[in-house]
Amino acid sequence: MTARALADQLNMYFVSMNSIPIERATIKTTEWQALYTALMAELDAQQAKIDALMLEFCPEDMTPEQLAEWGRHQRPVEEPFDLVSFITAREENQ
Prior knowledge:
The chain is mainly α. The protein has helices spanning 3-15, 29-57, 64-72, 83-93, and strands spanning 19-22, 25-28. It contains 4 helices and 2 strands.
């Protein structure tokens, strides 16, 4: 089971409850949702790093699911990138 699948199952379980008793404290559903959202964002960021490294160094080892997930997160560049202007501007700011 993947980390995302486990987190999704936990989310479905906890959201169905009004609160979760944890050692004398209680986590409200809204607090759980905020925690879940933050954890999913962190998981997505870490997976993106892994996918980018795999794509660069060992693309032949990527599964079709990894390639599809990586592809879903690609965005078109809105304007052409001018490397010479970028380097010149960076050198001027140093």
